[in-house]
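Fold Annotation — chain and its backbone
Encoding — discrete vocabulary of local shapes
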Amino acid sequence: MRKRIVLLLTGLFVWLTFAFAQDVPVGVIVALKKGSPQELNRYLGEKVDLTILNKNVNADKAVAEGELLSFFSSNPVKGFDVNHEGKRGESSFIVGTLRTGNGIFRVNCFFRRIQNKYYIHQIRIDKTEL
């Protein structure tokens, strides 16, 4: 009987550990919901591949933040919803819908794990047609 209880508690602990392990920082989703490039900057890698409306930039954190600030200034955010999330090895991603005053955009955000933290290495923002 004691073995069963110990096994049950161990299984529950392992399940909870996997269930609450975060591969995508929650702060990224909050920053996208607010349209805040300053908050998003905390999660950017040293170099970021940025594609906004077919304009490609391989930038450092400061330039990427400036490009995102320009986009969010022109497109005031009304909301952001995560549509899909995934993980493979040392990488993870989210795909979401960004609702703005100027339309709806699809956001793809790709992460790499560096020293047990996930950093954005690529962001793609495309206008969607509804």
User: Anything to note?
Assistant: Confidence is low (pLDDT under 50) at residues 14-21. The longest helix spans residues 2-20. Residues 49 and 58 are 4 Å apart (CA to CA).
